[in-house]
Amino acid sequence: MGQHSVQRTAVIATVSFFFFLGLLAVLAGLDGTGTLVSLSLGFDKGTNNTLPSPHRKLLRRATEMVEPNRIWGDKCSKSDIVINQGPTAPLPSGIPTYTVEIMNMCVSGCDISGIHLRCGWFSSARLINPKVFKRLRYNDCLVNDGRPLINGGTISFQYANTFLYPLSVSSVVCV
């Protein structure tokens, strides 16, 4: 090994050492001056400070109990319907397939009927039972033939197309 190779190896080792030392300091919570930093939950101890710290903006305070998209006194809302979809095994012809689950997650125990979804020009190379899911017109698909989806209930189907259709709730009727 030449002297140049030894110097290069020493420089790489030194830089790596300081990099990992800095990484370890960050993981341990040191702020660079040797002081241990603790993360707060946004409130100063011993004060009546109710403003969250700027680094915690994504966390909600425990005092916030807001339900999105719900008008006070409403039994249910569109946000109680949760749609999950993901890829499944393709058809023998190679067309991708997707499984859709539509769930009633109403916390007040309500049944929801008349579930309409925004679905674009939804179509499928695999036949879907129209009592489960059907497109009525552009961007309007009906779930469960308009019948109630019971609280905690799930309805699912598979469709086949070259791409996944974005599906979102457009309207519901609380039963």
From TrEMBL:
InterPro entries: TPD1 (IPR040361). It comes from the Eukaryota. Keywords: Signal. The keyword Signal applies. GO terms for biological process: cell fate determination. The keyword Signal applies. Pfam families: TPD1_C. This is Protein TAPETUM DETERMINANT 1-like. The lineage of its organism: Eukaryota, Viridiplantae, Streptophyta, Embryophyta, Tracheophyta. The gene is LOC113853108.
